[in-house]
Amino acid sequence: MAKTKPICVRLDLSAHEQLKARAYQIQGTPAGVARQLILSGLAGADPEALAHRLMAIDRKQAASEALLKETAATSSRLHSMFEALLDALAHPQRSSALEAAE
Question: What Å distances lie between residue 47 and 42, 43, 60, CA to CA?
Answer without folding.
Answer: 12, 9, 20
